[in-house]
Specification:
By secondary structure, the chain is an all-alpha fold. It contains nine helices and two strands.
Length: 199
């Protein structure tokens, strides 16, 4: 779901009569609700507008995924001297949000997050990650598992996550152990929820 900052909402309130014959919103809350109902997308520049419309006129999910994978790879490759990662979880989350704004299939969303997770975990073995980036990768893993579960696709995703967490050469043991513990907690909660639904 798109999020709208106050500046976007104020501009919409001020200029809504350029789009509609009468006012559709009188305050920020109404403006946000209206834009959400319309599934309005905020673009930073004309290139983003062009990209958005090109995708919807001729959707090519594979090309879209490849474009976003390149951006993720570029972000996770950012380093500074001494083997420290300069990757920012805020950028990775923004890329996930931007990717989702194109409304790809749920399995493509999950696959994209799994790509970020696997690439990030792999990079942790070579680079020192700040705690925020480690927690962010954990959040991405759990969100992908939750989305897969909602799509009844957890049976496909959980073995992939397990392979990433158990493979030699992927991340330091402590980092993998923390991720595995979070995953175990989430999976046990999912199983408990399933039992409660069946009863």
């Amino acid at each position: 779901m798109e999020t709208y900052d106050d500046e976007c909402l104020e501009v919409f309130l001020k200029k809504q009569k350029q789009l509609f014959r009468e006012e559709v919103a009188s305050n920020l809350v109404e403006a946000e609700a209206f834009l959400e109902d319309c599934m309005a997308v905020v673009c930073a520049n004309l290139d983003e507008v062009k990209e958005y419309f090109e995708y919807f006129l001729a959707p090519d999910e594979n090309r879209l995924i490849e474009k976003f994978r390149k951006e993720v790879t570029k972000e996770l490759s950012r380093t500074r001297r001494g083997g420290y990662s300069k990757a920012r979880i805020s950028v990775l989350k923004r890329l996930i949000g931007d990717f989702e704004s194109f409304q790809p299939s749920l399995s493509s969303k999950v696959d994209f997050m799994m790509f970020i997770f696997a690439l990030g975990v792999d990079g942790e073995l070579r680079l020192w990650y700040p705690p925020a980036l480690e927690k962010g990768l954990e959040w991405i893993m759990l969100r992908a598992v939750d989305m897969a579960e909602d799509n009844e696709d957890a049976g496909r995703i959980l073995p992939i996550v397990d392979a990433v967490l158990t493979a030699d050469g992927y991340a330091h043991r402590a980092f993998r152990r923390n991720l595995a513990e979070s995953l175990r907690e989430r999976v046990s909660r999912i199983r408990l929820d399933r039992r409660n639904v069946k009863q």
